[in-house]
Amino acid sequence: MLIFRSLHTAYKVTFFFILCFVLLQNGFAQAPSYRIIKDTTDTSSIVNKIHTIQEVEVSSIHPLSNVKTGSMGISFDVNELKMLPSLISDSDPFKSLQYMGGISQAGEASSNIVVRGGDNDQNLIQLNGCQVENPTHILGLFSVFNPDLIDQMRFIKSGVPAEYGGRLSSVIDVRNFINTPEQLQVTGNIGLIASRLTIKLPITDNISIYAAHRMSYVGTMIIPLLVKIGIDPKLAQNNFEFTDTNFGFNYNITSSTRLSGHLYMGNDAVKIQDNTTFAIEENSSKWGNKLGNIQLSHVFSDKFSMIHYLNFSQFELKSNLNWINALYKIGTSKSLMQYKSDYIYLLDNHKFKGGIELSSNELLPASIKNLSADSLNRFENKSKSSDLGLYLRDEFEYGPLLLNIGFRSNMFIKHPDSNISVSNFADKYYSGFEPRFFSRIMLDNESSLKFSATKHFQYLNRVQLIKIGLPTEIILSSSKHIKPSAMWHFSGGYFKSLFDNEWELSAEAYYKTFSNLLEFKGNLTDLFTVDKIENLLYDGCGYAYGSEFMIKRNGEKFNGWINYALGWNYRQFDEINQGKPFLATNDRRHDITLVGMYTVNEKINISASFVYATGSRLNLPRSWFVVDDKVILEYTKYNSFKMPDYHRLDVSMSYKLKEIKKVKSEIHFSVYNLYNRANPFQVYFSTKQDEKNKYDYKINMSYLMPILPSLSWTFKL
Q1: Which residues 6+ apart lie within 8 Å of 499 measured at CB?
Q2: Beta-carbon contacts of residue 280 (< 8 Å; ≥ 6 apart)
Q3: Cβ(368)–Cβ(144) below 8 Å
Q4: Do residues 323 and 468 lie in contact, with contact meaning Cβ atoms separated by under 8 Å?
Q5: By CB distance 3.0 to 4.6 Å, which of 62, 102, 296, 419 could disulfide with 157?
Q6: Within the chain, how many helices (H) and strands (E) appear?
Q7: In this structure, what DSSP letter does residue 275 have?
Q8: Of 28-37, 74-83, 229-238, 515-524, which has the strongest mean pLDDT?
Q9: Distance from CA of residue 563 to its chain's centroid?
Q10: Which H, E and C letters describe 377-422, residue by residue?
């Protein structure tokens, strides 16, 4: 009851606004004269019915899908997202998620994805059904997903169906191309910051292969260019580089059986040295993802089909830090072997889907060394665990009402750190039951109400050691001392299409409760003084609530939208802030996105995007004093400081060149951070002692990304 009494008045006004809006629209709307045919955007379904019809225009996404689907997720038109401005004059549909609403602006050059108050590690991100631990390159400036290979992408922020598990906050499901090309296709992009090349090759009528490679050269080209135009001479000491490679095949064994496989390998290297705008010395990080999976699908009939996955993924992170006059080397890693199977059965008006997931995890929680003191080392034993998930759901319609009711059952086993034996197989056992429910009711032909209530468990967590901007995380599994994280998520909204879908409106509200959240309570030196890292973790709870509003224009020449999110995000730990709730680090009160895309003619497209987000929360000292030649910092309420607000404007233009010998190409020009906004990369305090033993206390800000123009050439043959 205490939590509900704490809801802000503005949040109650949001519900009132939605209710009034629905009543007004429903009062003036005419009753529909025909029944709405179901339009599913479930990309996992492989049941198809084939009919011979006259030539029609084909669209990958139904124009009313946002109104008619039950889940409050978004299935994207990938071609539309490729028109949005980006850092490298290159399309990146995954990075475009930040413009779509529901995902907060994490900050300058941050890889964090914050969805409705959730933490970064609480998002389930998949490539062809295989988990991706870190989905970005170079601190979030690029994604690991090659835009030339993306065929489908789905983002689910609420009403998550039962087939997705293991994470609390959201689902981002990316699928590579599945159609066999009729002939050799070569596409690529050559730019100032990065380039890529993709090849798709049909071997036979039923077999095709593809390969893609990308690489960047920020440190060798773009930063020296910035130095020459006078941005900051010492920026040339920094370096940001990445490479990634994709291989895959598709084999249509028969008309109803398909085998496909995919392999991904990517590596990042970031090095930031001392310069006038970034006062952290010689910090560097290296990380990499490796993914591999095979999928086998079979259609038994027009009502029954199945698909099997065999997945492997690996993530490794190593960071070198110069922190408080000491050098540290921190490492962590995770590997996953997984088998999944999905079964889809259509019965009259019901769509049943069920399946099983069996996973084996191996973690290196932490490898930490103080390079300034050889005696200070910590190497955790590898942690092994297994988990089993079973799910079943049914989606069905009765007139204007669509319901999706399901459940997910989990079993998690933490194995002993020593060798596993039959007599000593489980060190700790957890089980969980996750009910999943969402519904949609059509109020008329072009408007609907949606509501969802879902429960989620998460057994593996990434814990941030220090908030320095660079990745400094360790990965921990549930154990005797760490309980699984859990969340209830309630969400509802009103969705409306106007003027033959020329305009779309939506208003949503949500409420989340979190339990068994983790927070690192010490500093890096404490890691060498405890037997178990668990002794340096706080266990707490939290809640988040807010609302989201969207207005979208779907025009022939001009498309765009405005998203506004209003949210509150609280955490509560017995040992922090005297046990009272406090604003979470990723609390952002206001989040605004404006996007515009205009087709000038058949050759020229221009676009612009503006983002604004309230600054995140920080726990900084309010005062300091010296006792016995030691600096004592005095703090006020936890996370009472707020970073400066984040905002920037990006613009881009693409020009289609004349086709030469069947080579189609475009020139892309973009400007990132057009008005050169100095968005802080980090805010921190420092105390220095001069030659006269006088102390100087300052709160400093670090900046990373100035205005960045970019030019690239994209070709296809």
Answers
A1: none
A2: 272, 274, 322, 468, 469, 682, 702
A3: no
A4: yes
A5: 102
A6: 5, 41
A7: B
A8: 515-524
A9: 18
A10: EEECCCEEEEEEEEEEEEEEEECCEEEEEEEEEEEEEECCCCCCCC
From residue 653, how far is each of 150, 552, 656, 716 by CA, in Å?
A: 22, 21, 10, 18
Could you tell me which of 73, 33, 70, 158 has the C-alpha nearest to residue 449?
70
Q: How far apart are CA 644 and CA 480, in angstroms?
A: 40
Task: Report DSSP letters for 136-185, one per residue.
Answer: EEGGGTEESS-TTTEEEEEEESSS--TT--S-SSEEEEEEE--SPPSS-E
* 695: β partners: 689
Q: Is 354 helix (H, G, I), strand (E, B) or coil?
A: strand
E strand intervals along 499-536: 503-520
Amino acid at 14: T
CA atoms of 92 and 102, how far apart (whole Å): 18
Q: Is 343 exposed, middle or buried (0-12, 13-18, 19+ CB in 10 A)?
A: middle
Alpha-carbon dihedral sign for residues 76, 263, 477, 143: negative
Rounded to whole angstroms, how far apart are CA atoms 469 and 109? 9
Q: Which ranges of 414-565 would DSSP assign to H, the alpha helix?
A: none
* Closest to 168 in 3D by CA, of 638, 546, 542: 542
507: closest CA among 153, 20, 180? 20
Backbone angles phi, psi at 612, to 5 degrees: -140, 135
pLDDT at 425: 66
Q: How far is CA 595 from CA 6, 59, 100, 599, 652, in A?
A: 34, 22, 9, 14, 12
**What gap in Å lies between CA 72 and CA 59, rounded to an integer?**
20
Q: How far apart are CA 417 and CA 412, in angstroms?
A: 15
pLDDT (tens digit per residue) in 343-376? 999 998 999 999 999 999 999 888 888 777 776 7
Q: Which of the four pLDDT bands, split at 50, 70 and 90, describes residue 381? A: confident
Average pLDDT of the residues in 624-637: 73
Phi then psi dihedrals of residue 710, to 5 deg: -150, 150
The pair phi, psi for residue 80, each rounded to 5°, is -70, -40
Residues 6+ apart with CB under 8 A from 9: none
Check if the beta carbon of residue 552 is closer than 8 Å to that of residue 535: no
Region 383-392: what's the mean pLDDT? 94
User: Letter for the amino acid at 163?
Assistant: E
pLDDT beyond 70 at 119: yes
Distance CA 376, CA 366 (A): 14
Distance CA 461, CA 129 (A): 20
Residue 332, pLDDT above cutoff 50: yes
List all residues 6 or more positions away from 219 whose beta carbon is below 8 Å from its beta carbon.
236, 238, 239, 240, 241
* Token code pair at residue 647: 């905002």
Question: Whole-angstrom Cα distance, residue 120 to residue 169?
Answer: 9
Please state the separation of Cα 308 from the chain's center in Å: 25
Which residue matches tokens 């296709």?
185
What's the confidence (pLDDT) of residue 143?
A: 83
> How many residues belong to the chain?
717
